[in-house]
Design goal:
Oligomer: single chain
Mean pLDDT: 86
Number of strands: 12
Distance between the termini: 18 Å
Largest sheet: 6 strands, parallel
Shape: globular
Strand content: 15-25%
Structural class: alpha/beta
Radius of gyration: 21 Å
Number of helices: 13
Length: about 325
């Protein structure tokens, strides 16, 4: 069987899908358009002029061509999975459609946040979505993100912090973080929060001139931390923080990283209570003022998730369901 995954893959999660398929002896390939950039300064300059005067992004066009050129080389595929089709022009999706009899998409952003034209969605034989609201509104098939990390029991870890969080810059999240840090200081918890993005440069500059208390580690950074290094940060904390974006109702990868490493979760996502792995001993849903966060949450033992529930969120089960590799799923 031949399967191709096509995605932007900015954060580096999608290649795990291809790895999982190959472990099942499937001829799988990944067309990753995030790797397609300008070759030199001349191309960047030309693209800048094109965007200003012609309202045309040449880099986007280059990426679309890369997809179709790659498919020409790979040939016909039994199945093609497109992650978040908003990234692609309609004409590119129509060309992709020609290379398979089963075209699938997975939406890991809500349609309220990232609009996808109906004309594009109509091209797909199957639409999966991680967002509960979109599933209920549009009739998509519900599918969460997946556990991609190898399981590491809490007994093999020795965390020094209570809470860790790394996130891209988002105004809603940053405002909530300010309120949360006050509560964390009040209950004398040790934590670290890293906010990454170009919009955080003002905070980064401010931090350079202000002495940060030892137990208050809030870092604003423009440089992205390597995806491979993140598990070491996670293992050093008893709980992981997960904050939603505006109009987001699905579960982020942070939740599934926490499951793999047996970490508690602190979140503002009320809908997490609907999931079968929810346990108030492991998961705290913050109220708007964070007044329900107590030091005892970090101190009480983590309650292990039943094996059958854990397996249902693994990448092995995810690929079986998406590609129909196991009729029982």
């Amino acid at each position: 069987m031949k399967i191709c995954v096509i995605s932007f893959d900015f954060w580096g999660y999608d290649h795990y899908i291809v790895d999982a398929l190959r472990s099942k002896n499937i001829d799988a390939h990944h067309i990753k358009i995030a790797d397609v950039t300008h070759s030199n300064f001349s191309e960047r300059a030309t693209n800048a002029v094109s965007k200003i005067f012609l309202n045309k992004n040449l880099k986007t066009e280059k990426r679309q061509r890369f997809v179709t050129d790659s498919l020409q080389q790979l040939g016909y595929q039994d199945q093609i999975l497109v992650m978040n089709p908003d990234t692609f022009d309609l004409s590119t999706l129509q060309e992709i459609r020609k290379y398979t009899s089963r075209l699938i998409t997975y939406l890991y952003d809500s349609l309220d946040r990232v609009v996808v034209d109906k004309e594009k969605l109509d091209l797909f034989d199957k639409i999966f979505s991680f967002d509960i609201a979109d599933v209920e509104k549009y009739g998509f098939e519900k599918l969460t993100n997946y556990i991609y990390l190898p399981f590491c029991p809490k007994e093999k870890q020795n965390p020094e912090m209570d809470l860790f969080y790394i996130t891209s810059y988002d105004n809603k999240r940053v405002e909530f973080i300010k309120q949360l840090t006050k509560k964390l200081l009040q209950i004398q918890s040790k934590f670290q929060i890293i906010v990454i993005g170009k919009k955080g440069w003002k905070h980064q500059l401010k931090n350079a001139f202000i002495k940060i208390p030892e137990n208050l580690h809030i870092l604003f950074s423009i440089k992205k931390i390597s995806h491979k290094k993140l598990p070491e940060f996670y293992k050093n904390s008893r709980a992981l923080l997960d904050l939603t974006r505006e109009n987001q109702y699905g579960l982020s990868f942070r939740v599934f990283e926490a499951l793999a490493l047996e970490k508690k979760i602190v979140t503002d996502n009320e809908l997490i209570k609907r999931y079968d792995f929810y346990n108030p001993q492991n998961i705290l849903v913050l109220n708007k003022t964070c007044s329900n966060l107590e030091k005892s949450f970090f101190e009480t033992p983590y309650k292990k998730v039943p094996e059958e529930i854990y397996y249902s969120y693994t990448l092995e089960h995810w690929t079986d369901k998406v590609f129909g590799l196991n009729k029982k799923t």
